[in-house]
């Protein structure tokens, strides 16, 4: 069972290619976001790993669910469920410029790769708990894959 990760250049380039297949009118298969909003959402999520977006503390119940979810995803290599709740700070329900959103996400992906190569990713996540480089690459790939599938790319 292959566990894809943004740390692997092949899967990093796969994500870049899939993003390039999007346009502002690409229809969604589920959810409320349009393609521009999804790109902005993914950009914000990656910025958590770069310490550019700070998530609020959550209660122990949700922390426990997050840690269990992370472990389950790693063991079974499954994806993120549709319509999963997210942090308010990461919800994008406002208008976004498609080209700006796409450029920002691609730049943030490059920054993520650099931070990863420099071993400069955080040691924990508000929802998923303790994190190492491998966790970040795996979970960020899964998140991007989830939303690209949402738009059938």
What coarse outline follows from CA principal-axis ratios? globular
Strand segment count: 2
**Integer average pLDDT:** 96
Order of strands across the main sheet: 1-2
N-to-C SSE series?
HHHHEEH
Distance between the termini: 21 Å
Multimeric organization? single chain
Number of helices: 5
- The radius of gyration is 15 Å
Largest sheet: 2 strands, antiparallel
Which class do the helix and strand fractions yield? Answer: mainly alpha
Detail the poorly predicted runs: none
Q: Could you write a compact summary of the structure shown?
A:
With 153 residues, the protein is an all-alpha fold. The protein contains five helices and two strands, in the order H-H-H-H-E-E-H. 29% of the residues are buried.
Describe, in plain words, how this protein is organized in 3D.
With 153 residues, the protein is mainly α. The chain has five helices and two strands; from the N terminus they run ααααββα. It has helices at residues 9-20, 35-49, 60-76, 98-117, 133-150, and strands spanning 124-125, 129-130. The protein has a two-stranded antiparallel ribbon. A hairpin with a 3-residue loop joins β1 and β2. α1 runs parallel beside α5 (133-150) and α2 (35-49) packs parallel to α4. The model has no long low-confidence stretch (mean pLDDT 96).
